[in-house]
Protein 1
Amino acid sequence: MEKETMTVTIPASLYKKIEEIIKGTPGASVSSYLVKLVRERLAQEEKKGEAFSQEDEEKVKERLKALGYID
Amino acid sequence: MIQPHGGKLVDRVLDGECRQDVLETSRSLPKLRINDESVSDVENIATGVFSPLEGFMGKAELRNVLNEMRLPDDLPWTIPIVLDADPEEASRFKEGKDILLENESGRPVAVLHLVEKYRYDKDELAEKVFLTMDRAHPGVAKVAGMKDVLLAGPLDLLEISPTPFDRYKLSPKETRILFREKGWKTIVAFQTRNTPHIGHEYVQKTALTFTDGVFVNPVIGKKKKGDFKDEVILASYDELIKHYYLKERAVMAILQMEMRYAGPREAIHHAVVRKNFGCTHIIIGRDHAGVGTYYHPYAAQDIFEEFPDLGIAPLFFRAFYFCKKCQSVVNEKICPHQTCDQIQFSGTKIRDLLVKGQVPPPELMRPEVAKVIMQFKNPFNE
């Protein structure tokens, strides 16, 4: 099964710069270089923080105390 | 706190009235008895250990994981999480209907909302995950023995199965709250299936010097013959932490999960799971999750290059040894001396000494740890 892909456009000058950077790297392509960069960036975009309900928090803290993980 | 994999911690554990209602209606459902390893998978899905998975993988997910090492939405995922069934028993189940999953003693475990049932190529699965077709590899042998149909769909957990190690069992929700209560912002995970020798302690403490806390996370569950028994691993770590760690800097909890021995792919899986527990870093040593000589000793480190978007940082360590000239624990990056000055932390050597009733030298293993191991009549899996 072929992986579904889409086409994006970048300036030719940028394309050439990437070609220069990856020259001599086995198996590397401009697409794979950009995919890696985009993945890195998207991972940084992940929002921080989370919320558990008050009830969940209390229940968990009680168990952690009972097991000796917290005082 | 670090985000769970995929951004949301999955919670499919039923409780209260809802659980009671589902339990009652589930009595009339067709039933499927599953083994202990699948029960662990069910619990790990439902409690968020395997976030973002909400159930067993369908055909498209499995294909993507095998070919791309990613879920269809591009999220890194390297190990298939699937539920196998005999074709005859699978024929009793209809797509779009529910199935009651029971453990080996017939206790209800979960309700599987069956979305898809499909056949798969065992050879392809084994070769892509384990990079070998050799039946002597425990993972390949296991796949060869799997049943021919896979059942896929989201599930809801009715009951967490009790184990002898419940005192050490924490869910990702619990570890996340625990880390926050301790005030830890950076947490390094240490995956283990062994009793600790000095090399393990050194790796953990090196990582701990630049993080807030260490999460020692032994894998409990089916392992291969000759591995230490689960109770021995836990008792030995308890002793090590009691005598040699700061209480406010180390936490141990178990991970109930089958070892697949898939080397590099499994290293990524271990990282994802620890990210879900709230860890920001994971220690990846020599031959992580490997077996025999199937994988290059540092293949499990190299594979991280392919996953810049994993969200948890790997800490790579070369193998440590004791150097008689340095008079300390070192590795090839920091020790200029010759091989003849090295005392390797050989698991086999330590094991042989323990079997003979001899305490390993203190430069290999803490005497308190050795003593605890030697209190067990047979500390190894048969």
Protein 2
Amino acid sequence: MIQVSAKTTRKLDPEELGDHLDRLFRAAWALCGSREDAEDLVQETYERVLRRPRFMRREDDLGYLYRTLHNTYFNARRTASRRPRVAAQLDDVQAASSRTDLQPERAAETSLVFEAVAALPQPMREALVAVDVLGLSYAEAGRALGVHENTIPSRLARARLKVAEALQG
Amino acid sequence: MDFQSTNGYSEEQLADLARLVDGTLPADRRAELEVHLAESPEAASIVARQEAALDALRGTADTAAPARLRARVERRGAAPVARRRVPAILSGGLAAAAAAAFALFFLALPGAGGLSTTGAAALADKPWTQPAPGAVAGTPQLLSAKVDGVPFPNYAAKFSWKPVGAREDAPSGRRARTVYYESGGRTVAYTIVSGGALNPPSGSRSVRQDGVEFRTFAKDGRTVVTWQRRGHTCVLSATGVPASDLLTLADWRGKGAIPF
């Protein structure tokens, strides 16, 4: 029988999760480099988390959401890489966004920054998204990513340098 | 990546440079590293390039989730996004806010020799005269600066607001210390005033969170939040920062590390 200690665990409160939507969306966009894919990824993340009650130990809501988002994204990529590749049909190609609620210049800048992040090798990317996009501490980022917090800052330094280089063109 | 530029730097040194950039490097190591930076153009370049990347990333911070995603997530079961209610005085038009700020300023003028929260908030407009306090070793949620044992929070890692300077004043004979934080070209000022609690302006609005009452108002174009920590008046204010963001900062407990 599994016992859940009230002293060390707490139930994730769905009421609180909506507050993190904007930050999680930015993190998803930075991870995958596509605004449209980020929407799908965030929706999938929330669906997974809300599917059943969750109990947390030592982790805050945002860190838990990021861990789920991160695992959802990289698991899907691994699965996709094992599938046979099929040439895209014309109907599969997404039309350019017709959204009118975005400031074009600002959206373009954001898109450039997140494309630069998405091009980073995975360890650098996930550290940078955790700390500089989501705002997690090194310890929280380490817990969310399953690595020691001491590995985070050097990855972060390398990631920032690479992003700066990409943005300089 | 330009690996040439980081050749010769150990993982630990790169980690220190990352911590320096985001403000989480302890004060003693910070001082040591700043000496090295003055002597090493290569290290200074690593810092400058990291800062450029961080500025670009901070520029994305106002990107919101699309409304259709918000609707889908809420339909799926998450509660409607519980944005903190911003008092009407702060979310209304600029003219209304300016008029209200003007009125509040005069309503809250201190009495004979007294200090008001608006008076404390005015310290935010003064330049900082001291270097930024460093993070407390082992407790990165705190800065080393404090007033009567009430410490300032370190917003660098969690919220990307880096401490950039500080000043001390003695308004009406009280001790007041202000720490300034910067992010994306914007500045937030956090003042802690010693002595008894200061009354907020009579027209300020009340927001209660986790048992703490926060009072918000506008003054001279600044958005101001004031509340009590251990009997000390805290005043957090900024220009161009939404009241909801200031409330998030004010209410941050750092997982219990920040005493209220």
